[in-house]
Amino acid sequence: MTVLLPGATLGVMGGGQLGRMFVHAAQRMGYFTAVLDPDESSPAGRVSHHHVQAEYLDEIGLARLCGHSDAITTEFENVPADALARIAEHRFVAPGAAAVSIAQDRALEKAHFTRCGVPVAPNAVITNEEELAAVADDLLPGILKTARLGYDGKGQVRVKTRDDLRAAWEGLSRADCVLEKMLPLAFECSVVVARGRDGTVVNLPVQRNLHRDGILAVTEVHPGCVPEALAQRAVQATRTIAKGLDYVGVLCVEFFGLADGSLVVNEMAPRPHNSGHWSMDAADVSQFELQVRTLAGLPLVQPRQHSPSIMLNLLGDLWFARGADEATPDWAAILALPGTHLHLYGKLSARKGRKMGHLTLTGATPEAVRATALQAAQLLGIPAF
Ligand code: ATP
Ligand code: MG
């Protein structure tokens, strides 16, 4: 396939905030864009040249998306892999259905990590009574996670005893699950890589992540934010995981750093990731431009981070910080701080736990960025970190 130069139309399955930021990156470079999403006011659909308002498996919708687009990517890992396989009959699609379907299933994903020689948390797959009964005591306390369709901590239950485990599995309607041993985390980190059609791989630096209630809250990126030896291991592991999938596109892999100094892989996302959003403001190539480049077949060059940065996720909770009525946070006060970059996703209403936007802070030194980030957090009602 030839390189798609600006002027071509890039399509995306899914119209959430990741699609919106992909559309912005593509448009900035002179591409036209098309989004398929069932929601008439989806964040990406509202800013795209074309919005095909249809369900992900709708034949006519998929045909219309193909009609608009020269190549198609995905922004939402729960887009049915089958839909990607169908559009791939007509258009170049990256990432491909095979890689996405592995990332959509925790059991398949763990098997892939193990094949790549990257350690995973001790775990057991539970799909029936026998497997439930056979779970080793050593996996408790643990976290029961649905194998498919979980995100932001949804579809997960923490369990201490066998009785808890059974109740949790019943509570998840006996869906196929993976039970993971609860690990003593020293820190969490993630790595974003982009892999081109010719096999070239580039990466963003390691990102240190803080989750609260199973949702990403803060990402910090500067040299030394993760011990150097572990950072190198995480980057190498992510590159190996992408290569092993023969992946084309942007891939994010999440890791746990354990108290004993070891590194364990958690999961992967076949798309740009919340923990890579800082790259829009603090790197010379963002994760969304990497997605555009991999889809269009443009060259990949190693991104360079030019400022230390911290990203604060802006969840819907902040809109209720001053009481039961929805109230917009005081953005003017935030923007009065140096090095603040406000990103709001254009969602029409706030809900607790809903990702409404993020705030990136950049500065000359990690200490300066941290001081401003803590000030911003305090103004917004985000607990200190
Ligand atoms: P995402 O929004 O990243 O897709 P998710 O719903 O897929 O999230 P996970 O990444 O599996 O969920 O878990 C969410 C968080 O829960 C992790 O980032 C970590 O903080 C905690 N967690 C998950 N598994 C474990 C574990 N085995 N031991 C300790 N903590 C864990
Ligand atoms: Mg996760």
Describe the structure.
Helix 1 crosses helix 10. Strands 10, 11, 12, 13, 14, 15, 16, 17 and 18 form a nine-stranded antiparallel beta sheet that branches. This protein has a five-stranded parallel beta sheet with strand order 3-2-1-4-5, sandwiched between helices. It starts with 8 loop residues before the first strand and ends in a 5-residue tail after the last helix. The model has no long low-confidence stretch (mean pLDDT 96). The protein is globular, with a radius of gyration of 21 Å. The protein is of the alpha+beta class. It has twelve helices and 18 strands. It folds into three domains: 85 residues, Rossmann fold; 60 residues, Dna Ligase, domain 1, CATH 3.30.1490; 196 residues, ATP-grasp fold, B domain (D-amino Acid Aminotransferase, Chain A, domain 1, 2-Layer Sandwich), CATH 3.30.470. It is 29% helix and 26% strand. Magnesium ion (MG) binds next to strand 15.
Counting DSSP E segments of at least 2 residues, the number of strands comes to 18
Strand content of the residues, in percent?
25-35%
Instruction: Supply the number of helical segments.
Output: 12
Order of helices and strands: EHEEHEHEHHEHEEHEEEEEHEEHHEHEEH
CATH class of the largest domain: Alpha Beta
What is the fold-level CATH name, i.e. the topology of the largest domain?
D-amino Acid Aminotransferase, Chain A, domain 1
Give the N-to-C terminal Cα separation: 47 Å
Q: Uncertain regions: pLDDT < 50 for 5+ in a row?
A: none
Mean pLDDT: 96
Question: Which small compounds were modeled alongside the protein?
Answer: adenosine-5'-triphosphate, magnesium ion
